[in-house]
Design brief:
By secondary structure, this protein is of the alpha/beta class. The chain is 50% helix and 16% strand. The strands form two sheets. The chain has an eight-stranded mixed sheet, sandwiched between helices. Strands 1-3-2 form a three-stranded antiparallel sheet. Bound molecules: adenosine-5'-triphosphate. Residues 88-94, 116, 120, 232, 340-341, 381, 383-384, 387-388 line the site of adenosine-5'-triphosphate (ATP).
């Protein structure tokens, strides 16, 4: 038996076999402006009797009834950061992009940033957003810009600054001056090694610190909402401890540099390198400051929230449970859990759908019994039958998720 149970956009439906209900969203009070929107829920199964309208609307409502608390997310003009993260492929980019569109359509000049080395923002918005610079996204009512950070390029900048001060460049320099003991201390920092074969998460740490650098510049001051589409869980977890590690490493290098400054200044002035070293030192100090800002930003309950995205499978939920525990341990504020791609209701399932639904129920059950996950506000997002690409599709998804 062929069976379909879908939720579809009125923008999308051309061959609606059985449109069962139209639910008009009662929009939340706008910050500046909001366009009312109607979304059509469709459910049909080719060989079974059609669903009744009342069942349809009631069932869909049960899928989406838990409000995301968007009112709270959208209120206020003070800048807020939202970081969306989870296992690979669960829909982080779609959820992040739909949130960014929703903020922009509610009056917030918004920036959506991808720090995932495998960017998919361009695919999600169906626009070319590559290039490592601010790119305007066409479509939303208020300004929405996207930024895909190039981790390779950022890492190269970091490497250059570090090498001049504490990496192999300085080590060789000091070896040459008979300061081997200090050089050994430098070896302990393992910074050169770190940069040569960076662990997962370093790229992301550097990418986010790059964003911090951008945010200090005046052209970024307009953004009141900043949404991060982060790299998959493993990277994010390592990222949380990296700023501390890097901060300590850079701090040690700077201290060391001060110690040897007097010993080397005469030699450096002979070789005319004083100015270059000072510039590099300033750069490193700035990077260190940014790392501290990144660390503080991740833990600032007033302005930042990490939203966990998952799907209803045992594997994804287990990973989300670990992520939630780690975020808690690191004092990163988490309030919401999106369970994405939930099968919409249907009176009659094919064998495949019935099995899938049972699996999903089991995964939802695990969430309810998980001490960390169950304490979060669960937002259930349905599996839709459109590919989430382009602003209209993101707006459609956003209106379902962010209520
Ligand atoms: N609720 C949904 N219904 C239907 N398709 C969805 C839904 N959410 C996401 N998708 C689709 O799933 C695919 C993966 O989504 P997305 O790129 O957002 O995931 P991701 O977690 O960011 O992936 P990655 O870890 O690879 O960056 C995309 O094709 C997207 O259109």
């Amino acid at each position: 038996m062929a069976c379909r149970s879908v939720i579809s956009s009125s923008l999308h439906m051309t061959n609606s076999i059985a449109i069962k209900g139209v639910l008009s969203f009662a929009p939340n009070p706008p910050l500046l402006h909001r366009v009312p929107k109607a979304v059509t829920f469709v459910s049909f199964c080719s060989s079974t009797k059609p669903l009744t309208k009342s069942f349809q609307v009631r069932s869909v409502a049960s899928t989406t009834e838990a409000a995301s608390g968007f009112d709270e997310m959208v209120s206020g003009t003070k800048r807020k950061y939202y970081m969306l993260g989870g296992k690979g492929g669960v829909g982080k980019t779609s959820c992040a992009a739909s949130l960014a569109v929703k903020f922009a359509n509610n009056g917030h000049p918004t920036l959506v940033v991808s720090t995932d080395p495998a960017h998919s923002l361009s695919d999600s918005f169906a626009q070319d957003l590559t290039g490592g610079a601010l790119v305007p996204v066409e479509g939303p009512d208020y300004p929405l810009f996207a930024l895909e950070i190039n981790p390779e390029k950022s890492r190269e900048e970091f490497r250059n600054a570090a090498q001049k001060n504490g990496g192999t460049g300085v080590k060789d320099f000091m070896d040459g001056m008979g300061l081997g003991m200090i050089a050994d201390q430098l070896g302990e920092l393992k910074l050169g090694e770190l940069l040569d074969s960076p662990p997962p998460g370093l790229d992301e740490a550097i990418a986010i610190s790059k964003v911090m650098q951008f945010l200090e510049s005046p052209e970024y001051s307009m953004f009141s909402r900043i949404v991060f589409d982060t790299a998959p869980t493993g990277h994010t977890l390592r990222l949380l401890s990296l700023p501390d590690f890097l901060d300590a490493s850079i701090g040690k290098i700077l201290k060391l540099r001060q110690k040897i400054a007097s010993a080397t200044s005469a030699i450096k002035s002979v070789f005319g390198k004083e100015e270059t070293q000072q510039n590099a030192s300033d750069k490193l100090e700035k990077l260190r400051e940014r790392m501290i800002k990144v660390r503080d930003l991740f833990r600032d309950t007033d302005s930042t929230e990490f939203v966990i995205v998952t799907i209803p499978t045992v594997m994804a939920v287990s990973e989300s449970s670990r992520l939630s525990a780690s975020l808690k341990k690191e004092n990163v504020p988490v309030k919401r859990l999106i369970v994405n791609q939930i099968l919409p209701p249907s009176t009659s399932d094919c064998k495949f759908c019935a099995m899938k639904r049972k699996d999903q129920m089991r995964a939802l059950d695990i969430i309810q019994n998980d001490p960390g996950l169950s304490s979060l506000l669960m937002i259930q997002a349905p599996l839709v039958d459109v590919e989430i690409r382009g602003v209209p599709a993101l707006r459609f998804l956003g209106d379902i998720i962010w209520k």
